[in-house]
Design a protein that fits this description.
There is one protein chain. The protein is an alpha/beta fold and 452 residues long. Helices cover 31% and strands 25% of the residues. It folds into two domains: 8-282, Carbamate kinase (3-Layer(aba) Sandwich); 286-435, 2-Layer Sandwich (VC0802-like), CATH 3.30.2130. It has helices spanning 40-55, 70-81, 87-111, 143-150, 178-188, 222-230, 238-247, 309-319, 350-359, 361-364, 391-401, 425-435; strands spanning 13-16, 22-25, 27-32, 59-64, 116-119, 126-128, 137-140, 154-158, 161-164, 170-172, 193-198, 219-221, 251-255, 263-266, 288-292, 295-304, 327-329, 338-346, 368-372, 375-381, 408-412, 415-421. The strands form five sheets. The chain has an eight-stranded mixed β-sheet, with helices on both faces. It is globular and about 85 Å long. Mean pLDDT is 91; it is low at 1-11. The structure holds aspartic acid and magnesium ion. Aspartic acid is lined by residues 33-34, 65-66, 71, 97, 159-160, 175-178.
Length: 452
């Protein structure tokens, strides 16, 4: 299909190339994930792509992730040294991964005859709060990037990191945070587009590593993309989608290994989505299926069924800085005056949350706590659910036909999520993908990466 246009255009101006061809000069932010720069060959391939974008008459800012699985390897290393790394040192360690790739990419671009300069997050003006490991961007001051562009340079920025003005410390934005760096820079520089380059051709109706027949989505609203990202689709960092929506940055998710048109994430429903031929694109009822293996289920058993107990439990969890996802409270077992409350949270936050609950045992008065990491969450997402009846019926019938037992259910206006046993999750994803006719005839291409 041809490129959809949105009404967001800022820095665009006419320019005449040395060949005499008049082109529209755009400011493009390109972000390359770890699998796109996993080795020297990858760095050189990306360098060529970046140089081509500049040679076509654009101003180009590049955000890079750490090479391949570097971040995971650094985490493994740290865990071999200590089981209680100070959060500050963890950020010093992890931010090094992106410094390696940014410098190598700048070298590769210079070797090709174009000029590039690399910048750490703090040099690029990424100002965050002081929370190590999951810092939030509070300001972007890209004047050094702007100057580099004005001098005809390509600016390379280390993703996933920033600096706090209050603590003067280096911070990181949380796993997958380079996407958010790219969008924040695109917003601050008023870029025309933020291109997110990855190892598949765009956003698919399901993870092509689990469902090979998944289809590439041409355009998706940021509302649906937010639900997909929040439901575990790792293709885009959740905060990157939030940021893009808030600042109206059009996102184009595509492969760095092919020239195919990817998926456009359209910032707001009001933006007219039309192809270059002027055809309005209609949104499908269902946009996709996401899955998530990163959560655990906690059941607080035998909670006194009186007002204030749920509030007490969730206050304890909040004080432990845990992010709760699904919550289910059962009706109280007849005659006992006690009930069970279950919820899910990220596995990485499980230990702290359990310790906090046990510490509050006397205050809450529960009987026991059950903890289960062998769960998986599946979510079906589609803006059309609002106006199309029968989606839930099809959804639950498909799971029941496949004999898949459901543990928990939650919904939003445009999402249905269930928790199943971890071992059944992949099968459940394929069953639901098929039940909503999302399968394509051909297999999706996964160009690289381990999906780790
Ligand atoms: N390198 C970081 C990570 O692996 C950030 C990113 O890739 O976006 O999470
Ligand atoms: Mg990523």
């Amino acid at each position: 299909m041809s490129t959809p246009t949105t009404e967001v255009h800022n820095a665009t101006e006419q320019q005449v190339l040395p060949t005499g061809r008049a082109v529209t000069k755009q400011l493009i932010v390109q972000k390359f994930g770890g699998s796109s720069v996993s080795d020297a060959a990858g760095v050189k391939r990306v360098a060529k792509r970046v140089v081509d974008a500049q040679a076509a008459g654009n101003e180009v800012v590049v955000v890079v992730s750490a090479m391949g699985d570097t971040t995971d390897e650094l985490l493994d290393l740290a865990s071999q040294v200590t089981d209680s790394a100070p959060a500050r040192e963890m950020d010093m360690l992890l931010s090094a991964g992106e410094r390696i790739s940014m410098a190598l990419l700048a070298m590769a671009i210079n070797k090709l005859g174009a000029s590039a300069q690399s910048f750490t997050g703090s040099q690029a003006g990424m100002i965050t709060d002081g929370i190590h490991g999951k810092a939030r961007i509070i300001d972007v001051d890209p004047h050094r990037i702007r100057t580099a562009l004005d001098k005809g340079n390509i600016a390379i920025v280390a993703g996933f990191q920033g600096m706090s003005r209050t603590t003067n410390e280096i911070t990181t934005l949380g796993r997958g945070g380079s996407d958010t760096t790219a969008v924040a820079l695109a917003a601050a520089l008023e870029a025309d587009v933020c291109e997110i380059y990855t190892d598949v051709d765009g956003i698919y109706t399901a993870d092509p590593r689990v469902v090979p027949s998944a289809q590439k989505i041409d355009t998706i609203s940021s509302e649906e993309m937010l639900e997909l990202a929040a439901s575990g689709a790792k293709i885009l960092h959740l905060r990157c989608v939030e940021y893009a929506r808030r600042f109206g940055v059009p996102l184009h998710v595509r492969s760095s290994f092919s020239q195919h048109e990817g998926t456009w994430v359209i910032p707001s429903a009001e933006d007219k989505i039309t192809t270059q031929e002027g055809v309005a694109l209609e949104q499908p009822i269902i946009s996709g299926v996401a899955h998530d293996r990163s959560e655990a289920k906690v059941t607080v058993v035998g909670v006194p069924d009186i007002p204030g107990k749920a509030a007490a439990i969730f206050q304890v969890i909040a004080d432990a800085h845990s992010n709760i996802d699904m919550i289910v409270q059962n009706v109280s077992t007849h005659g006992t005056g006690r009930t069970d409350i279950s919820f899910t949270l990220p596995i990485v936050e499980g230990a702290d949350a359990l310790a906090a609950l046990h510490a509050a045992h006397d205050q809450i008065g529960f009987e026991t706590i059950e903890y289960n990491e062998q769960i998986g969450k599946l979510s079906l997402i589609g803006a059309g659910m609002r106006s199309h009846p029968g989606v839930s019926a099809t959804f639950f019938k498909a799971l029941s036909d496949a004999g898949i037992n459901i543990n928990m259910i939650s919904t939003s206006e445009i999402r249905i999520s269930v928790v199943t046993h971890a071992d059944l999750l992949d099968e459940a994803v394929r069953v639901i993908h098929n039940a909503f006719d999302l399968d394509s005839d051909s297999e999706a291409t996964v160009y690289g990466g381990t999906g780790r």
